[in-house]
Design brief:
Elements (H helix, E strand, L loop, with lengths): L2 H20 L10 H8 L26 H13 L4 H26 L6 H16 L5 H5 L4 H19 L3 H16 L8 H11 L3 H4 L3 H34 L13 H20 L21 H22 L3 H13 L21 H9 L1 H7 L4 H32 L3 H11 L4 H13 L3 H12 L6 H13 L3 H14 L6 H17 L5 H11 L4 H13 L3 H11 L8 H19 L7
Helix pairs in contact: 1-4, 1-5, 4-5, 4-7, 4-15, 5-15, 7-8, 7-9, 7-15, 8-11, 9-11, 9-14, 12-13, 13-14, 14-15, 18-19, 19-20, 19-21, 20-21, 21-22, 21-23, 22-23, 23-24, 24-25, 25-26, 25-27
Length: about 600
Amino acid sequence: MSNLVRSFLTTATIAVLIAFVYWPVHTAAFVWDDQVCLHTAAALRHGDSWLQFLSADFCDWRNYFRPFVVAMYAAELHIFNVEPGPMHLVSLGVHLLNTLLVGLLARALSPKSDTPLKTDVLAGTAMLLYGLHPALIEPVVWISCRFELVQTTFMLLALLANARIERLAWRVLAVAACFFLAACTKETAAVFPLLLVLFDWMAVTPTQARRGFLAQLQTLWQRQWPVYIAVLGAGFAYLALRFAALGFLLDTADSAPVALSARLQTAAQALLIYWRILVWPMIGLAPTHFVDSKQFEVFSAPTVGIDLAALVLVVAGVYGTFRRSPFGYAILAVTIALLPVLHILPVQYDPSLYHERYLMPGLALTLALIPRMVAAISLPSAHVRTFTIAACAASMLWLGIAVINVRITVPLWSDETKLWQWQLAQDQGSTYAKNSLLALAIDHHDRVSGDKFASELLAEKDPCIVCMVNVAMLALGEGDLARAKIALDRAQESIFPTIQPRLLQGFVMATARLHELQHDEGAEEDYRYAVSLSPLEPKAHMAFALFLARQGKAAEARAMMEETLPLWPPDVREEHRQQFEQTLAAGMRSARPVQHQQ
């Protein structure tokens, strides 16, 4: 068997295995942000309205400029008619592509002294560890995480092009284009230039490495300066495009000031957690990881120990890189890749301390370095066989546990109710989980569960706006106007000028329903205002159509319903049409004057 055939069969077998393990995703549903941003909202599938969301305001995300994947979403929603299964398979396909790219990059970084068989084995190991790593379950199964998947694709393609393309002009074009597309996929691609320099540093030959540090940098510059200039130009082009779309580069208006020492302690804690996940991701998986940020504002023996451990890790990476150790390269690559998500910048982009998916680029780069790390291990010949057997056994055990973990966790990410029950089991005080389960209880008309979660949310000292809106909607459905008013009053206390339009719309809709039940003439004006806040949100249109139907205004109600139906996804249109017809029939009966017999 030729080396090429063996390499192809190895790669194909690994891809089929990973696809088999993840195959249940084809029956997964829309969950979490998928429901609001992709399924219910008509923004990406109603006419050409999707074009405006390429630049800004997709899903009310203010600081995000991610046109590439937003365009992917729009295309898929049109092609697949808002069916989640095919969209999940697209995400799985991107994951398989990334797994292939990890293997190709591992081959590109393999020492020239390695035999073809050794290269196949180590590249295949890198692919298996990446493809089945439980930290990547979330982005593979949750469609709204496509940003991480595609960004990693472009970053791997850029590094692979930089390592493989000899002709300078093509290398410059390929690397700069991939970086630009990675940046247009997710903002964290900003660290790519540092990773590019790091991987170029690895490529310095042993002869060149014996020269002084400045001489080595000069060698890099002489060979790569056109690439660096092109990447810099692509970065400025992205920033110009981002500024044109958003009107700013970074909005910190909603971020509370945090002391530098607290930010550094937060970064240290997060960095060590990410390294734990990289090595042993089998525990602690969950949709969110909220922590009390106040713990980072004080120094104690444990926090100082964490700070020192993180510092030692970073210094070891820098020193190892300077000494040309593959292990140092791996540590520094992970550190650089994680810089945007360590909460160092004073921007509140996510209340969770960490997310497993943020490890994706760093994990890919670390595993691509496996051939070099193995080559750097020096053992007496008598111990090589023992070490090899032990390493193979440990890898097989790790992979076996990982496969079980993937198979158990994929169903949890495939169903909205299971997802938040899982989160609540991990964190029994999770407001996020309770509110999500409350919303599901309202949708499923589960009064018992709804009342339980509503009472718990009302008892909290600092309730979230959407929580109180959901509590109010449940109370309104039960006719408990007093409880609805209490919840809406508490929500109003927390409303601020820069609130997301979708949250404000929910509050106004609940207020409109309350006013309607109180026979307040201002209810109709409230409903109209709710519709105006987000013209492509079907829930507000539906609420207004049902209001008009209950008032017996048949012509106006039908006109509003004609506007509303196309905004709903195809799978729920008939359900809402029937609800409207029943409501209109009841409204017409109540509006008809009663005739008394003589």
